[in-house]
Specification:
The protein is mostly helical. The protein contains 14 helices and four strands.
Length: 369
């Protein structure tokens, strides 16, 4: 017997799009032509709460053609979030394939939902085991006081490999195979591209990798390159940052040279990962041995010289940026926040230089007198 029931005339405005992992509906021309010629051959599928499960492309065509009602198949029992997400996943895999980024977004949410579901099951098992505990004064392994049977075996807390299990579950639900490694890489690339804590060059590389992999589905090579750039950027910062002790700067420079000597990105990333671990420990040791009394003003200009060195190192890292970017593209495509950031940086830099130039001229004049 079929699950659900058919409603021939359901108001389109009442259908809730909800959360969709598909943002690219693809070319709708052929589907539109079919609907115009034959009508809607397959009904839209919704929950009893009017949430769309299946048919977002068909619904989009019906809307563009000006229809106010649409035939729908109403499916009961799809109310909790996990079931809804899985139902949407079924529709996506049976029809137009999701892009790699859309797959990763669906995978990331399913992974969390599976983990929550497994936790609920585990808690229910624990409560069940507690309810079957022997009554006071009743020995175990006797009728009414069983505690060692299969049904009453107490669950262990935080099952080992549970995270791996949920990743595999989510990956198979999205792609039909255990592709969690690839999907985790896409998720991490998305996080890097969106992180304000990352170096701008690393963020840009991650964003470009996502655009490229969305066209051909090749993830691993691009992921390795972005992760390697991320590691090299960190080593380079430690090698050049004025706040780092000289021993750390020299060690970071040596490690960086060793990384860059590797021919294959995979080998370079392994070397970089080991180098970062070694330097992280060195920095901890150096911080533990650092004097606590703060600045020693042997040189009365020590603070000012230190600040100047930091500024020059900052500008050296970004020097020549105006040759690496196209101003016409920035003018056309930058949003308001991006525009304000660049405009403020350049305007305030000019003001900073004007004041510094006046101070420099005054100092030179005083020296001549």
């Amino acid at each position: 017997m079929s699950r659900g029931h058919l409603v021939l005339e359901h108001t389109i405005d009442e259908i809730i799009d909800g959360h969709s992992y598909r943002r690219d509906l693809g070319d709708l021309a052929e589907l539109r032509e079919s609907v115009e010629r034959f009508g809607l051959l397959s009904p839209i599928v919704i929950t009893t709460g009017n949430v769309l499960i299946s048919g977002n492309r068909r619904l989009a065509v019906m809307r563009t053609l000006g229809f106010r009602t649409v035939p729908v198949w109403v499916v009961p029992g799809v109310s909790d979030k996990l079931s809804t997400v899985l139902a949407i996943q079924d529709e996506n895999t049976l029809h137009k394939m999701l892009t790699p980024i859309e797959q990763a977004e669906l995978y990331d949410e399913l992974k969390q939902l599976y983990a929550e579901e497994n936790t609920r099951k585990q808690e229910a098992t624990q409560f069940g085991a507690a309810s079957r505990a022997p009554a006071a004064g009743v020995p175990a392994n006797t009728p009414g006081g069983e505690s060692g049977g299969v049904d009453s075996t107490p669950p262990h807390t935080a099952p080992r490999g549970e995270g791996q299990k949920t990743r595999v579950q989510a990956a198979k639900a999205v792609t039909g195979r255990d592709s969690h490694g690839m999907l985790d890489q896409v998720v991490e690339l998305k996080q890097i591209a969106a992180s304000d804590d990352e170096h701008p060059e690393v963020r840009q590389a991650a964003a470009e990798a996502l655009l490229e992999l969305n066209t051909d589905g090749k993830v691993n090579g691009r992921y390795l390159r972005v992760k390697l750039l991320q590691a090299i950027t960190l080593l380079n910062r430690w090698a050049e940052h004025p706040d780092e002790p000289d021993a750390i700067r020299h060690a970071a420079a040596a490690e960086l040279a060793q990384v860059q000597a590797q021919e294959h990105p995979k080998d370079a990333l392994k070397e970089a990962t080991r180098a970062i671990a070694r330097l992280t420990q060195l920095r901890k040791d150096a911080a533990a041995l650092a004097p606590r009394e703060g600045w020693k003003d042997v040189d009365p200009l020590l603070r000012q010289k230190h600040q100047i060195r930091k500024l020059v190192d900052l500008l050296r890292r970004e020097h020549g940026w105006w040759d690496r970017y196209t101003p016409e593209d920035f003018g056309k495509y930058a949003d308001e926040e991006q525009w304000e950031l660049v405009e403020t940086s350049i305007t305030q830099s000019g003001r900073f230089l004007d004041i510094a130039r006046d101070a420099r001229a005054t100092e030179t004049a005083d020296a001549v007198v």
